[in-house]
Each structure stands twice: as C-alpha cells, then as structure tokens.
Amino acid sequence: MVPVFSARKRRVDDGPDEDIETEGERHLQTLAKKQLNTNISLHQQFAQHREFSGTSAFKPSVESLAGIVNLSEYQQLSETDARVEELGHFGLTEEEMKLQLKYDTNVKETKTTVSSFSVNPQVEKERLDAINKKINQKTSAYKTSDNFADVRCVTRHEIDLERAISSTNPDGQKLSNILIKQKEYEKSNPLSMVPDLMTEIDSKIKDQICEKRKERKRLRKKSKVDNLHVNQTLDSDQNNSIQLHHYNSEKESQNILCDEKISSESGDDVSDVFIGPLPKPVPEQRGRKEICYNVKPIPEQCIISNRLSVDDIIQISKFENYTPGEINNVLYLKNLHSNVTQEDLIALFGRFQQKDEPIIVYKLMSGRMRGQAFITFPDETISKKALELVNGYQLYGKPIIIQYGKKQ
C-alpha cells in the first residue's frame, strides 16, 4: 500500500520565540564569570599582569653648557639630545642608546668603552639588530590604535550575524552598542575634527542652558507660591486664626470687681451653700476662639510724636519704593520687632473698635513670615484712619510700615 500525502500545506503553529544568545551577551557573561571567579592561584594572577616600558629621566646636555660655544657645536649637541630623547621613547636602556648613537655617528669613543659587546664586531652587530627590532616594534605599536582591556575584536561576518540576530530579538542588546567606535580623522588636516568638536560643545551649552531655565522656572514657581501664601492669609484667617478684640469697657470690669467684693462681704452661712454634683465641663470649641484682652491703649499724642512721616519712610533704603497701595479694609503690617505681641497691636488699633460694629481681627504671623501682621477692619474708612495714625510709629525701636492688603 503506497502512502498518499496531501498536497495542501500544513499549518505550523507559531511557538514561542527562541531566545538566541548574541555575541555581546556571551562576551558580557564571560567577563562576569571572570570577575566572580575566586578559584585562582597566585601564579595565574601574576600572569594577568601587564608589562609597561619603564620611565627614563631625560636630561638635555645643552642645559649643562657653560662658557663660549660655537654654533656648530651647539647644533650638534641639540641634535644629539633630540636623538637621545627619541631613543628613550622606544624603551632603550642608556647602554643601548649609547651604542645606537655610536652607530649613527660612526664615531668611536676613546675615553671609555661603551659596553662589553663593543670588543667583538659580530656581537656588536647582533646587539644593534636587537635594538633595531625593538625600535621597529615600538614604531608599529605607536601606529596602531589603542585597544581597551578585554575588548573583543569582531570580524565583519560576525557583525552581520549579530545584526541578523538582533533584528529578530529586539529585546536583546546589540553588540554595536557595546563596541567603542572612534572616528578617524585625516592626519594631514587637523581641522577635520573641528565640526565634531563644535557639535559637542553646542550640545553641552544647550544642556547648560536647559538646566538654567529649569532653575529659573523653579525659583519663579517658588516666588509665586510665596505670594499666594501672603494673599491667602485672609482665607486661612477665617478658619484657623484667633480673633482678638478689645472692648473699652473699664466700667464693666469695675462692676465685676464690685460684685465679687459684695458677695465676699455678705457673710452667707455655710448651710445656704448648695452642695451637689459638679457641673460637666463645657467642651472646648474647635476652630475660631475669642480672647478678650484688657489692654490700656497707647495715647494718640504719644503715637503722633513717635512716628515717621511718609517722606522719612521713603528715605530708608529698604522702603524707598513704599506706596500705601489700593485702599481696602485690610492693613498689612511689616518691619515689626520680634518682641511685638497681640497685646501691642490691640494697644495701637483697639481705639478703632466700635460697639455695634464687627470685631477687629488681628493676625500676627510667625515662622517664615515673622515680623508681619494682618489686621481686618469692618470697613475701609476705619482702616484708612488707622493707617494715617499708626503708619511709621516706632514700636520697640523699629518703625511699623503699613500698607493696604491685596484684594482677592
């Protein structure tokens, strides 16, 4: 029986994407394993050390010249110094440099022998060949670009494979992001790198400008918040402030004292005193409180004789731009002394309290707004009289500066 295959294409279900390890991920794993590997011997650790050519102190012989020297001799010494400095960059020892200079100048030294190898010409030739080999190795090393430690060289074929894998694996990190690319410039034209440098400088300048703009916006926002805090003090006063008012009622206080004296002199018997359960304490009311102060007002003549005029206030450098502002029923007091209390404000403005009018509200600020206060009067007429009387009064040695509050 011959099996029959269907001509229709079979549908293959798409399975989960295969997690393909890229070259960059493999290289990172290798570096991580090397970093975390603790099972390493001392010999292996020393084998990883790198050798660097030792430093040599170059002292030009031209600096040690003294007396009169011919120009030709000076030029010859300067050329010899330049050659010695060049040979020192190739990592040659002092003995090797002397031997190379002897070979370059074809002059035999008569005072001292250069080295033990100068006796045999064949040995000297081998030594010169070794020196030339070292010079050629250093020259080729200078021509090649510097490579970082543990940087892996990738061929073009491997880069193409990496790109093909990365296209199917968007979450994987591309190897091209790991490699460090350095643009090559023409050595004959040093100005070829100027456009890139200008672009880099422009980007740094733009970043600095953006940071300064953000800082200015932050400061501007902070100043707006402070201004709003000043303007909203009247709203907060309706909910949280303590209403302080003064009633010029010396007669009532005297009557209370007289009643207490009469009750004490009546001599009632103890049997007439009612003994029973104590009354329940009245619950404390939250929110606005009314506190009455029996404060003696400051005489008006004393205020007038100890206050500054508007011209005197303007003469102060801090308040040279002083203006009362637009008239309203709220007075804004500033430049207050730190010892000023609510009683002091009542002693100044309590005279403007009318019996049948709404009470005057005092708001003495604290914290960051220390030295400022707000006083709310029933109407604009009373606030105008209060400003004209008290503005510039020197309380505790500091003049009170009064302005009309800002309207909401």
Automatic annotation (TrEMBL):
Residues 214-223 have a biased composition (Basic residues). GO terms for biological process: mRNA splicing, via spliceosome. Pfam families: RRM_1 (PF00076). Coiled coil: none annotated. Residues 329-407 form the RRM domain. SUPFAM superfamilies: RNA-binding domain, RBD. One of its GO terms (molecular function) is U12 snRNA binding. Keywords: RNA-binding. GO terms for cellular component: U12-type spliceosomal complex. PANTHER family: RNA-BINDING PROTEIN 41, RNA-BINDING REGION-CONTAINING PROTEIN 3. This is RRM domain-containing protein. It comes from Patella caerulea.
